[in-house]
Write a structure and sequence with these properties.
By secondary structure, this protein is of the alpha+beta class. Helix content is 24%, strand content 21%. The longest helix is centred in the N-terminal third of the chain and has 13 residues.
Length: 84
């Protein structure tokens, strides 16, 4: 069962690209926020931008290079947690 969950997660995140950040491998939950401190990077490589109120995400660790190369931060953008 764990393998299926991991496989589904890998397939989902492998196709995710934030619409505002071409060639970036991460994704944002677009959860509500009022300041940058309401948003955190999550996942093994920090490739998920989510609200501190959202549940934590478990992801594969294969996006670390992509995340670090782009020098992008998880912030509160127009009251939604998103990479910028």
């Amino acid at each position: 069962m764990r393998i299926w969950i991991l496989l589904i997660g890998v397939l989902f995140l492998n196709g995710c690209v934030n619409q505002n950040l071409e060639n970036f491998c991460g994704t944002s939950t677009l959860s509500e926020c009022s300041s940058d401190s309401d948003c955190v990077s999550d996942g093994c490589s920090g490739e998920i931008c989510r609200s501190v109120n959202d549940e934590s995400y478990m992801t594969a660790c294969e996006w670390k290079d992509c995340y670090e190369k782009n020098n992008i931060e998880c912030k509160c953008v127009e009251n939604k947690c998103s990479f910028k």
